[in-house]
Amino acid sequence: MGLSWGYRDHSVDEAAGIDLIRQAIDLGVDHFDTADVYGPFKNESLLGRALEGRRDRVVLATKMGLVVEDAATYAYGRDGRPEHVRAACDASLARLGVDVIDLYYLHRVDPKTPVEETWTAMAGLVAAGKVRWLGISEPTVAELERVSRIHPVTAVQSELSLWTRDHLAEVVPWCAAHGASFVAFSPLGRGFLTGAIAADARFGPEDFRSKLPRFRPEAVAENQRLVERVRDVAARRGATPAQIALAWVLSRGEQVLAIPGTQRRRYLEQNVAAAEIALTAEELALLDALPAPVGGRY
Ligand SMILES: NC(=O)c1ccc[n+]([C@@H]2O[C@H](COP(=O)([O-])OP(=O)(O)OC[C@H]3O[C@@H](n4cnc5c(N)ncnc54)[C@H](OP(=O)(O)O)[C@@H]3O)[C@@H](O)[C@H]2O)c1
Fold first, then answer.
1. Mutation test residue for ligand 1: of 158, 181, 262, 272, the one with most atoms within 8 Å of CB
2. I need a surface site. Which of 13, 36, 120, 245 has the fewest CB within 10 A?
3. Any ligand 1 atom below 6 A from CB of 263
4. pLDDT recorded at residue 10
5. Which positions of the chain have pLDDT values less than 70?
6. Whose CA is nearest to atom 36 of ligand 1?
7. Whether 232 contacts 257, CB under 8 Å
8. Whole-angstrom Cα distance, residue 181 to residue 35?
9. Whole-number average pLDDT of the chain
10. Positions marked catalytic
C-alpha cells in the first residue's frame, strides 16, 4: 500500500517500487497484499508489473469493497453489491495482469448490502476460476459466522500490533478454530512502533495518518512511552524496535501472519529477519504489559 498510497507523499518512483518488490521476493517474501483502492488502482498495476515472470513464486492477495470518493481527503465509500464484486474482480485481474487472484478479500462489509449477497458473489468467482481463496478484512465474529456458512474463510485481515490488540480476544481464536489465517495489517503501527516517528512529528493532509487520532500531535508525544519500552527490549536483544514489534505479532499464534509495508530496502531486510526472532517469556511479559495508547486507531 505504502508504495502508492497512504503515507508521506504516497508514492515512490515506479522503477524503485518494482525493484523493491523483486528484492523482497529474492529475500523469500512470498505473500503480497494490495487492494483496488490503493492509489486508487496504481498499486495493483505496480505489483502486477513487479510480478512479471515471478507470479508463481508468490501468494497474491487483493481486495475490493472500498471505493475512493475523494483521493485528496481519503474519503471512502463501501460497495458490496454482487455486480460490483464481479466487475471489481475483472478489473483487478486486468491491472494485475494475472489469470487468477490467490486470495480475494472483501475490504469492508457494506452495511447497505447483506454480507451473504456479497460473499455468494465472491464464491461465484471461485467457481469461475478467477479466485482461489476468499478473505475478509475487519469482520466481526458474527459476520464470520454468517459468511463461513456459504463458503470457507481462508484469511481474516485486520489490524494487530503492540498498540492494537482488539482482535486477540475473539477473531484470532475464531481463525484458529476454523483453519483460517489471521493476516495482521499495520503490524508496525503504521510506522509508530519502530521508533522512527519523533515526539514532535507532524503529518500533513497528504498523509493518511493525519486523519487518525493516534497520530495527532498530543498523542504522538504521549505514545512515545510505548516506543521507549519496545526500544528497551530491542536494545537488550540486539534487534531493532521494528523487529521486536513484528516478532510479538508473530508470537500470537501459528495462524497469525504479518504484512509490514516499507519503501526502503534497509527496512525490508530488517523486517524479513524478524521472522527468525523468538521472544523469550520475559520479553513477552514486558511487551504484553505495555500501556494502552492514547487515541483511537481510526
Ligand atoms: N485491510 C486493511 O484495511 C488495511 C489497512 C492498512 C494496511 N493494510 C495492509 O497492511 C500493509 C502494512 O500496513 P501499513 O503500511 O499500514 O503499516 P505498517 O506496516 O505497520 O507500517 C508501515 C510504516 O512503517 C515504516 N517502516 C517499515 N519498516 C520499518 C522499519 N524496519 N523501521 C522503521 N520504519 C519502518 C514504513 O516506512 P517507509 O514507508 O518509509 O519505509 C511505513 O511508514 C499495507 O501495505 C496494506 O497492504 C490493510
1. 262
2. 13
3. yes
4. 61
5. 9-11
6. 262
7. no
8. 18
9. 97
10. 38
